[in-house]
Design goal:
CATH superfamily: 4'-phosphopantetheinyl transferase domain
Number of helices: 6
Shape: globular
Structural class: alpha+beta
CATH topology: Ribosomal Protein L22, Chain A
Pfam families: ACPS (PF01648)
Oligomer: single chain
CATH architecture: Alpha-Beta Complex
Number of strands: 12
CATH class: Alpha Beta
EC number: 2.7.8.-
Enzyme class: transferase
Radius of gyration: 18 Å
GO molecular function: holo-[acyl-carrier-protein] synthase activity; magnesium ion binding
Organism: Streptomyces venezuelae (strain ATCC 10712 / CBS 650.69 / DSM 40230 / JCM 4526 / NBRC 13096 / PD 04745)
Order of helices and strands: EHHHEEEEEHHHEEEEEE
Length: about 250
């Protein structure tokens, strides 16, 4: 395994991208996936959803590689079900890093991934999406918060933010004391939320060698994947380019 810095125990890293940005990234490709992941993706009938799931699983490798110092090929998440003990489903985790949490999300051409110390959960939704109906939201989310959001002149955006926060919190385990961060990625028209035990969250997108997706082809080769110097070019950018942005904690899960 490639030597690298130890994971930062004080902060979580969250990456947001479009599905196309990830599929066009030369640092990751479908050959990095485990056999069970490829079988699961092959069974998805809708091409758009299939691409979203693939992109989310590749993005989480980029995120884990950046956070841990490993290469994307060494950053494959595994899954284990706490109820049946079976593998291939349940909450994802990084083998060999028991103190590091990992999460991923996808929705209609958007993908997100988060890695950080302890429990972590991430959710992404298109900013134009409107969750509902209210009777369903009241069953799934804190009733007082739903009522407050629904009372606004335009309740849709507030309800959406409430929804992504609830989904992120659920993916992180839902326990009390989780720190919640939420923001809007204007470049991708996405609303994102992260629930984490970390003190801070660094957010970013994906980049490589200063190029954009339009100048690259989709990587579809198989094999061991990119290692060494090639993997070191995996990078992240802030919402407007440049360095990643720290995201303030907005509250705690109750």
């Amino acid at each position: 395994m490639t030597e690298g810095p130890q994971p930062d125990r004080d902060h979580a890293l969250a990456l947001v991208a479009t599905t196309r940005e990830v599929l066009d990234h030369p640092g990751v490709h479908e050959g990095l996936l485990a056999d069970w992941e490829r079988r699961r993706i092959a069974a998805i009938r809708l091409p758009g959803r299939r691409d979203d799931v693939l992109a989310a699983r590749l993005l989480v490798r980029l995120c884990a590689a950046r956070h841990t110092g490993r290469t994307p090929a060494e950053s494959a998440p595994a899954q284990r079900c706490p109820e049946c003990g079976g593998s291939g489903h349940g909450r994802p985790y990084l083998p060999g890093l028991p103190g590091v949490g990992v999460s991923m999300s996808h929705a209609d051409g958007l993908v997100a991934a988060a890695v950080g110390p302890g429990a972590v959960g991430i959710d992404v939704e298109p900013a134009a999406r409107r969750p509902g109906p209210l009777r369903v939201l009241r069953r799934l989310l804190p009733e007082a918060e739903v009522a407050e959001a629904a009372a606004r002149p335009d309740p849709g955006p507030a309800l959406l933010r409430l929804w992504v926060r609830g989904e992120a919190r659920l993916k992180a385990g839902g326990q009390a004391g989780l720190r919640l961060s939420e923001w809007t990625d204007g470049d991708r028209a996405a609303v994102v939320a992260v629930a984490t035990e970390a003190d801070r969250v660094t957010r970013g997108g994906v980049t490589w060698d200063g190029r954009t997706g339009a100048g690259c082809t989709r990587a579809g080769v198989t094999g061991a994947g990119i290692t060494g110097a090639g993997a070191a070019r995996v990078g992240i950018t802030g919402a407007g380019g440049g360095t990643p942005d720290p995201v303030p904690v907005i509250g705690f899960a109750r």
